[in-house]
What we know:
This protein is an alpha+beta fold. It has two domains: about 5-145, Immunoglobulin-like (Sandwich), CATH 2.60.40.10; about 150-400, 3-Layer(aba) Sandwich (Rossmann fold). Helix content is about 30%, strand content about 30%. It has eleven helices and 20 strands. The strands form four sheets. The chain has an eight-stranded mixed sheet, with helices on both faces. Strands 3, 4, 7, 8, 9 and 10 form a six-stranded antiparallel sheet that branches. Strand 15 (about 280-285), helix 8 (about 285-300) and strand 16 (about 305-310) form a beta-alpha-beta unit. Helix 5 runs parallel beside helix 11 and helix 8 packs parallel to helix 9 (about 315-325). The longest helix is centred in the middle third of the chain and has 19 residues, at about 250-270.
Amino acid sequence: MKHISRSILLVSLFFAPLLPAETFLSIVHSLEQLPAEQRQPVIEKYLNTIRIAPIIEQDSLLHFVLYGDADSVAVISDLQRWNSSDPLTKLPCGTYSLFYRTFTVPSHARLDYKFIINGTEKLDPQNPNITPSGFGPHSEVRMPKFVPSPYLTFRSEVPRGSIDSLAPLYTLVSPLRRYVIAARPIKVYRPAGYDTLNALPVLYVHDGLEALEFMRINVVLDNLIADGRIPPVLAVFIPPVDREREYITTSLDRFTLFTVHEVVRMIDAVYRTDRTPQYRAVIGISAGAHAAVYTALSRPDVFGNTGGQSLTVTPQLRAATRRASEQNTLPPQFKLYLDCGLYDLHIRPPFGEEIDFVGMNREYSDLLSSLRIPHYYKEVTDGHQWASWRERLPEMLVYFFGGR
């Protein structure tokens, strides 16, 4: 990739937006009236005044902007559901070029994005706001009316829980079929003051190690407990080994047995837990959400709460849902939480089934309603990202454990 110009460095320090009287598109229009060699001082003066990227105006106008030495720039983001990129318009400005593209988005949206500069995906070099994803870091934009959860921020004055690392679990679920659920490490969050506590509610988390890293669950639990929003809670972080098979396809039932008969039994044997279903919850994101909701619907005698964010919905899950309704196995206090982003994934493979997360989550919520299964469903202006899911984690935990 060509070297990004020194002019980018001129706008690499950001504090607060300093919007000039002229709008960005009016500046672009003014530049277009000038010869290319006269544009450079105009755009550099503007960018050194604006000191923010991307540029946001009128609450909902989002301008992706890059100024530097490149042949081509495109943006790929939650707005495109990460399917394909949109090219930025190139405006030569003497030595360098201004690249830009404008979108109208909801004023309370939060979005992940990356630039494709000369064919290579890159973070926005002019935006210091970076957020983790399952595919590496992304640049992040928060629209003016987006309100971040206050429970995600570390507070030095809040008592902190501790993290235990347990020996890898290894179990033979069915000797006759000679199928082994693979060994895996498990981490456990113990709330502050654990040695003085008894009968703790327990949260089981699929994709556990990534969730612990990217969702800041320990920080969220510390803050919620300190503020009295939930009682002290134990959290168990379970990673997958064969994610697609364990969470969605051929090993789903075996993984459910593993979770119920091995993990839950071990946690109850080692820690001071409440053994009643209404004080256990199992959650996950995407495919992990499928495993969580499927497990709880199949074994409400073990899990009285479940949460799925950007839930993957399959015929197996629909069948388990109908079965739970027909057999009337769900207790009145059973709690099911779902949320999905309006910019969630919409996968259109060349072969096979199209996957529209928003559409299938809406349909699944409708199915639950038709079966008279109480649940909470929410759509947000966000995408299929850890930064999106963690924003609503506090709300989900309060839904499960608040007031108990």
